[in-house]
């Protein structure tokens, strides 16, 4: 496989205990859309998911794999994280997809329609049999009623590094289809399930990504949905169109005030006068050491996002949200 000059310099894996990687904007690109694939290098998203599943027509599966293979061979790895969504391994296309995906050396494989931990473990076994890089991660789509009901056991695998699980991805279109709940603009009937996905992800030490917004022309509605996803605790949002990248990056980046507050907390605990203290007063508010850990994580994420932006030649405004 061809490599681009920048690739080898980039930390490739979301390893446990590695600094957090920004996953604010996670764009699906159908493997069969050559024009869209050609755009990837110029896009400012944190992650690209080359899709072999829902975005590909059933009779174009082989063509999709070929298109992905030749794209990665020619273009090399993109500067952002690279994820490949395969078809379900229990179906007729999954194993061929997985072989083709592993050969492209992505950061992660995204498994659709995960119903329970067995789906992850089976994928893990298949990867081991293929001698896949041990650092290759698995991401799981939560988009079926069974997947939701088994969230606890799925997320539990996040505590086992050899299970490779790195991220839970909400599949809201399939959830709507499978359950029959109404797709209201405020997602009021989806919210409790979205919150469960975030909760499970945290219990397993995983990242959590919000579902897509289909109406890619209504960017005001999209910004509101991003803000909702951020407030629910998601790390970022899955996207279908390049116009959604900028608003997602803005919504999931810490704001100027949040960065300043985090810096003040880090500085306060670094003060030798506070070295022995578990709790201090800062600006009239109680601040504990748990807030220090939170502040450090926020600054690490902001720094990583700024690093990503630098790689892509984008003026990131120092990691500050453009709200
Ligand atoms: N990734 C990269 N580029 C994309 C893109 C994507 N997901 N979606 C659109 N583009 C490109 C188009 O190719 C087009 O390029 P051009 O200016 O060189 O012609 C440009 O952005 C503008 O696209 P636009 O005309 O606004 O949209 P479209 O009608 O071409 O495509 C969709 C609309 C919804 C079909 C397309 O965005 C898409 O396929 N999105 C992903 C769908 C998907 O993966 N679904 C599965 C997961 S839910
Ligand atoms: Mg789906």
What percent of the residues sit in helical stretches (DSSP H or I)?
A: 40-55%
Give the strand tally.
10
What is the assembly state of the chains in this entry? single chain
What is the rounded Rg?
A: 20 Å
Strand content: 5-15%
Q: Whole-number average pLDDT?
A: 90
- The strands making up the biggest β-sheet line up spatially as 1-2-3-4-5-6-7-8
The total count of helices amounts to 12
Distance between the termini: 40 Å
Q: Could you give the order of the helices and strands?
A: EHEHEHEHEHHEHHEHEHHEEH
Bound molecules: coenzyme A, magnesium ion
What shape does the CA trace take?
Answer: globular
The major beta sheet can be summarized as: 8 strands, parallel, barrel
Secondary-structure content class = alpha/beta
Unreliable residue runs: 1-16, 313-323
Overview of this protein structure:
The structure is a single chain. This protein is of the alpha/beta class and 323 residues long. The protein contains twelve helices and ten strands. It has helices at residues 34-39, 61-75, 94-103, 117-129, 145-149, 151-156, 172-179, 191-203, 219-232, 245-252, 256-270, 289-311, and strands at 25-30, 47-51, 81-85, 108-111, 137-142, 165-170, 207-210, 236-239, 279-282, 285-288. The strands form two sheets. An eight-stranded parallel beta barrel has the order 1-2-3-4-5-6-7-8, surrounded by five helices. A two-stranded antiparallel sheet has the order 9-10. Strand 2 (47-51), helix 2 and strand 3 form a beta-alpha-beta unit. Helix 2 packs parallel to helix 3. It is globular. Mean pLDDT is 90; it is low at 1-16 and 313-323.
